């Protein structure tokens, strides 16, 4: 009897100590994050004071963020097209006056995203097995694959596009390669993480029947990661549609080149028209792929009997 | 004939298998018993080289299997069927494919990646499944089967390997008594009908007594006892499992997973 109450007393002491330690860590973390946020805001000019001339010619000083707001409003107001109810058709035609070009470039944008995703899936999928700690045949292959994936995804796709436009000229090929390379890096990492979470029992059985490393991957690992692979791929396609719509800004094909022209020529309503086109496309593709992803996850039923 | 000589395996400083020697004539059914961590699983995996030995040799019909590499090693693994405690099936693939993977050692890269198995292989697989009463489930996903059915699929997978040796690592530890009996019956049937040597790790002493021709008791990587089930006396068991906290005496009924004999109930 005394033994039990002694053990319980020990527990109470240990519990109180653990609790105090947890609270102290929490408080420290909150303070550290708050300080970091303040420093970052200060550094990025969040609290800057600026002088600015008003349209009336008067000069005012004030918080940069606040006195800049009217100018943001001015810019956005210029992009709003003038639409009248009675002449709506004609006004819309006026707003989307370059629609044949834009439609062609939208098609190009989506194809760039599709092709780039395909390249990324193939490259990322093949490398993900070498880049998974639990599957890599040796340490050298693991580190080479990991570092390669890191490099290609650390460089932004816009920078890759600049390099490829320089090497292969202006056009969608540079865009496909740029986004494809970046996608290889990101998908390869996501796939590798899925690979690292697999249950290796089936792979052990494949080794025990005399299978090769490739057999272990094909039968022991791939069936488990397929739902993740599909889900990540669709998600990446959505991101790539967004990427490919701006990548034309540096000459790598798609709608981006029109955005650049509209900004430099100060064609404000063109800018809003392009924005509407991209928004609608992204919303449509996002919702379609989201439905598809949920369907696939539902069909393969992670929570089911399997 | 499987001849193991001075087999050793160390993990860090700990010897999981420590100068183990024994020989098993073809067609014997051997039960390996011992506490958790006694080295039973390591011993089985050393035989088909899922684990590399630190020293010693394993010879099967005169071939030193510890020296095999590459394709020869894979063919040796193919000739050892292996049954796992957790079945180790590809849960998301159908039962038939799970059995067909037993043929992978005889496939090239292309046909293996494409899951292209021949009609003859499919016929063999179905016969193996039928022998274990699982032909109707052939196209079902393996993960949807019960534990006992999954373990019998694993046995069918081992059968299509045309094994010369069957290694079973705690095959019934995750099963209920009725399924455990079916799985053990299947193993014994294969042993008797096909003349395949079976080495089975068990933690239930009564099962080992009932099914095995010979029992090997291991403790700390060494053989504590090796002989017919009759020789497995209380003293031997105390040596094998003995723990100062328990006092040395082992009650076999506690570890038993067997059903009470049904026939006695009927006649009573």
* Average pLDDT reading of chain B: 87
The total count of helices of chain B amounts to 11
- Output the strand order for the largest sheet of chain A: 1-2
Q: What fold name stands as the CATH topology of the largest domain in chain B?
A: Rossmann fold
Strand content of chain B is 15-25%
Overall 3D form of chain A? extended
Let me know the CATH homologous superfamily of the domain at 110-297 in chain A.
Answer: MetI-like
Give me the CATH architecture of the largest domain in chain B, please.
3-Layer(aba) Sandwich
What is the C-alpha radius of gyration of chain A, as a whole number of Å?
27 Å
Which architecture of the domain at 110-297 in chain A would the CATH scheme give at its second level? Answer: Orthogonal Bundle
Low-confidence stretches of chain A: 301-306
GO cellular component, one term (chain A): plasma membrane
Keywords (chain A): Cell membrane, Membrane, Transmembrane, Transmembrane helix, Transport
Subcellular location (chain A): Cell membrane
Membrane topology (chain A): Multi-pass membrane protein
């Amino acid at each position: 009897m005394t033994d039990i109450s002694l053990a319980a007393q020990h527990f109470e002491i240990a519990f109180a100590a653990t609790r105090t330690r947890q609270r102290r860590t929490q408080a420290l973390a909150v303070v550290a994050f708050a300080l970091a946020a303040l420093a970052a805001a200060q550094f990025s000019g969040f609290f800057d004071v600026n002088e600015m001339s008003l349209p009336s010619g008067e000069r005012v000083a004030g918080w940069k963020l606040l006195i800049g707001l009217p100018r943001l409003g001015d810019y956005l107001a210029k992009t709003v097209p003038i639409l009248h109810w009675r002449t709506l058709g004609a006004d819309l035609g006026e707003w989307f006056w370059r629609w044949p070009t834009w439609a062609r470039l939208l098609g190009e944008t989506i194809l760039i995203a599709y092709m780039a995703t395909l390249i990324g899936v193939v490259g990322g999928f093949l490398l993900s097995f070498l880049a998974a700690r639990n599957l890599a045949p040796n340490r050298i292959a693991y580190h080479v694959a990991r570092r390669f994936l890191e490099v290609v995804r650390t460089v932004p796709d816009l920078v890759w596009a600049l390099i490829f436009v320089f090497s292969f000229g202006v056009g969608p090929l540079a865009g496909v390669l740029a986004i494809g390379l970046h996608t290889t890096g990101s998908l390869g990492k996501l796939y590798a993480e899925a690979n690292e979470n697999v249950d290796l029992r089936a792979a052990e059985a494949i080794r025990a029947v005399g299978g090769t490393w490739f057999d272990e991957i094909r039968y022991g690992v791939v069936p488990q990661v397929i739902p993740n692979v599909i889900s990540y791929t669709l998600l990446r396609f959505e991101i790539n549609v967004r990427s490919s719509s701006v990548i034309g800004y540096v000459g790598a094909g798609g709608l981006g080149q029109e955005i650049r022209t509209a900004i430099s020529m100060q064609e404000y309503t063109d800018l809003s028209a392009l924005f509407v086109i991209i928004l609608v496309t992204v919303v449509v593709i996002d919702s379609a792929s989201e439905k598809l992803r949920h369907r696939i996850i539902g069909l393969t039923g992670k929570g089911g009997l399997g | 004939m499987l001849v193991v000589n001075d087999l050793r395996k160390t993990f860090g400083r700990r010897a999981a298998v420590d100068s183990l020697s024994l020989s098993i004539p073809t067609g014997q059914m051997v039960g390996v018993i011992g506490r958790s961590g006694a080295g039973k699983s390591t011993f089985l995996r050393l035989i088909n080289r899922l684990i590399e030995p630190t020293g010693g040799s394993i010879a099967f019909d005169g071939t030193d299997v510890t020296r095999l590499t590459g394709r020869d090693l894979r063919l040796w693994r193919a000739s050892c069927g292996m049954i796992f405690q957790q079945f180790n099936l590809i849960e998301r693939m159908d039962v038939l494919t799970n059995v067909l993977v037993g043929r992978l050692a005889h496939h090239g890269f292309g046909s293996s990646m494409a899951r292209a198995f021949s009609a003859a292989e499919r016929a063999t697989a179905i016969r193996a499944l039928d022998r274990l009463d699982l032909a109707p489930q052939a196209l079902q996903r393996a993960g949807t089967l019960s534990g006992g059915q999954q373990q019998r699929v694993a046995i069918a997978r081992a059968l299509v390997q045309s094994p010369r040796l069957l290694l079973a690592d705690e095959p019934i530890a995750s099963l209920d008594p009725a399924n455990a009996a079916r799985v053990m019956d299947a193993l014994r049937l294969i042993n008797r009908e096909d003349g395949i040597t079976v080495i089975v790790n068990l933690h239930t002493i009564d099962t080992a007594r009932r099914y095995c021709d010979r029992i090997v008791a291991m403790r700390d990587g060494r053989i504590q006892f090796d002989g017919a089930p009759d020789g497995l006396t209380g003293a031997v068991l105390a040596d094998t499992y003995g723990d100062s906290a328990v006092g040395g005496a082992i009650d076999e009924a506690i570890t038993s997973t067997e059903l009470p004999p049904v026939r006695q109930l009927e006649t009573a």
